[in-house]
Design goal:
The chain is 72% helix and 0% strand. It is mainly alpha-helical. The protein has one domain: MetI-like (MetI-like fold, Orthogonal Bundle). The longest helix has 34 residues.
Length: 512
């Protein structure tokens, strides 16, 4: 496909950008991303402070559960919101029983904003909270000693110190919202189409010239966002001689318990509500409590969409993704820690801000000729999943490598250790917990990946998200019930992984 730069009617790129409709889509994309980012920050910042400063029962489990939405497929998210606030949703039934009008979230801008907050809550909590957990509290204590009130300490001391991680988290959330596809398509429709949805619509109608032009514009914006993010991310490196996270935690006292309870009540409705609604809907579909749809997942089946078959495929691809993304991400993290190149860092982050559908199409075209003709091979799916997963390995390992004191490695070299031995005996033990975090994220991303898999899949390579999609396309209550049950299984697998993350993070370090 070629975008002409000349001719009487001008280039495809200039013609597309000159179209008022597509300019409107570009403006709306930025507008909804800005609103979604603001909402996410308001929702997540109190939680980031609570997780960073207070120790309370259920803290580890709650932090893990609130990270699950980040890797859920858009289909599962839509099912969760419908299970919570749809016509038969839990919240709808509760409001109706109280004589209040039900919430109508379908096909509205507010639905998109709420879903983006649901998705990106964990990004702010982890990026800002991890930095805040290691912030030197002596500065705040000194301000209080000098007579500063709590509000003044927050405004004059804490927030200025959090400027870099706050901006980095906000920019990353903005990028995710700017390139969001599934959430906007399902909950917004064509009325609230963004650049990404417009690219999808143009591609399905084979209008590839404007689709390529909009994709190029989106990638340029994304790369610029990633360059700025990479510069800000450099401020998040935490030296390893800081106190462990647990040492900075304290027990809540008095009114703080009320503040914590109120915050997590709101979070439970917006972040955990759709997940709990999904489970409740799977257990009560049809009006009575039943576990038959979960039992049906283990029934023998011969089709490629059989739940057990899809689960085995998902597990196989996820393990392959970890095996490929872990060494790739570790190598890139080492290169970034040594070079401190902002441009290289931005390039490694591009998969996070690029549509999985676009990446899938790129892989389908790029691996279509010998000797790299991988069409029809399961390896192509693993490579695609690894491309989407390795940035999480980089972001988990990079802060540890940047904060690693070089004199430890130099001392080992002085005592006669080879570079490989110094790495295995000094760096690797410190890096191992961060790599486990990255590996768990890579596993969860692969388990929940939908867009690229939809483009690249063959029937025999059906995964859990694809099986859920296929079941939703079939009529009948049994198919819907199994789709809901499979969504719960996928959610449980991701939750177990994130619980493991919370128990293995080295001193709470790692970008995510």
């Amino acid at each position: 496909m070629r975008l002409s730069l000349g001719g009487e009617q001008g280039s495809t790129l200039l013609a597309t950008l000159g179209d008022r409709y597509y300019l409107g889509r570009l403006w709306f994309t930025a507008y909804q991303a800005l609103l979604s980012t603001g909402f996410t920050l308001v929702l997540a910042l109190p939680s980031a402070f609570i997780f960073a400063r207070y120790q309370f029962p259920g803290r580890t489990l709650l932090r893990a559960l609130t990270t699950v939405p980040f890797v859920m497929p858009a289909l599962v998210v839509a099912l969760g919101f419908l299970a919570l606030a749809g016509p038969q949703g839990l919240l709808t039934q509760l409001l109706t029983s109280l004589g209040l009008p039900p919430l109508r979230l379908g096909r509205t801008l507010w639905a998109i904003i709420l879903a983006h907050g649901f998705y990106n809550y964990a990004v702010v909590v982890r990026l800002v909270g991890n930095f805040l957990a290691h912030l030197d509290q002596q500065l705040e204590e000194a301000a209080r000693t000098l007579g500063a009130r709590p509000g003044q300490v927050l405004w004059r001391v804490t927030l200025p110190l959090l400027a870099s991680p706050l901006c980095a988290a906000a920019l990353l959330v903005f990028t995710f919202c700017f390139t969001s596809f599934g959430v906007v398509l399902i909950l917004g429709g064509q009325r609230y189409a963004t650049l990404e949805v417009s690219i999808y619509i143009l591609s399905t109608t084979l209008d590839l010239g404007p689709a390529a032009a909009l994709a190029l514009v989106q990638m340029l914006f994304t790369y610029w966002f990633m360059v700025v993010y990479a510069r800000l991310q450099g401020a998040l490196a935490v030296p390893l001689d800081f106190a462990p996270e647990q040492q900075n935690l304290r027990r809540p006292q008095g009114l703080v318990w009320g503040w914590i309870g109120l915050n997590f009540l709101v979070v439970s409705v917006i972040v955990l509500g759709p997940l709990l609604g999904l489970v409740a809907r799977a257990l009560t579909l049809g009006g009575t409590f039943t576990g038959e749809y979960f039992q049906a997942l283990f029934a023998p089946g011969r089709t490629f969409t059989a739940p057990w078959f899809a689960a085995l495929n998902s597990l196989r691809f996820a393990l392959g993704t970890v095996a490929l993304a872990l060494p790739l991400g570790t190598i890139l993290a080492h290169l970034l820690a040594r070079s401190r190149s902002t441009l290289l860092d931005a390039v490694t982050m591009l998969p996070l801000g690029t549509s999985a559908v676009t990446l899938g199409l790129g892989f389908l075209l790029g691996f279509a000729r010998p000797p790299l003709d991988l069409r029809g091979s399961w390896l192509l799916l693993v490579i695609a999943h690894s491309l989407l997963a390795y940035p999480f390995v980089v972001r988990a390992a990079l802060p540890v490598l940047q904060g690693l004191q070089r004199n430890l490695v130099d001392a080992a070299r002085t005592l006669g250790a080879t570079p490989a031995r110094a790495f295995s005996r000094v760096q690797l033990p410190l890096l191992a917990p961060a790599l486990l975090v990255g590996a768990t994220f890579a596993f969860a991303v692969s388990m929940g990946e939908f867009g690229a898999t939809l483009v690249l899949r063959r029937p025999e390579y059906t995964t859990l998200p694809i099986a859920i999609y296929s079941l939703l396309g079939r009529p009948g209550l049994a198919n819907l019930g199994q789709a809901l049950a499979m969504s719960c299984v996928l959610m449980a697998a991701c939750a177990l992984g994130f619980v493991a993350i919370e128990r293995t993070r080295y001193r709470g370090l790692g970008g995510f």
